Amino acid sequence: QVQLVESGGGLVQPGGSLRLSCAASGSIWGIYAMGWYRQAPGKQRDLVASITSGGSTNYADSVKGRFTISRDNAKNTVYLQMNSLKPEDTAVYYCNVGRIVVGIPSDYWGQGTQVTVSS
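User: That's the sequence. What structure does it adopt?
Assistant: Structure tokens below.
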């Protein structure tokens, strides 16, 4: 099993910045992608950003130019640098890991961290 530990959430004013971290441990071999999703009250869980082991990234249109995802493969850790935060960024952010072992894919989720953007 893969265990995910998230950190970095909190309360920030509009225009401020936060950096989220997610460290994977346990059966960490075979991880091919890590990413961040978010879910606001009354809305579905949506992809924010993802990154593969090869460095390919993908961003939601709403965060392009403001958020940056990065990965430290040696530490099995993914980061989300969030700048120019807006109230609509308020949500619970979930770390996600994609893993393939002997051809079998699986997903793992963190417990979520609250990000609140409010003045």
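The mean pLDDT is 94.
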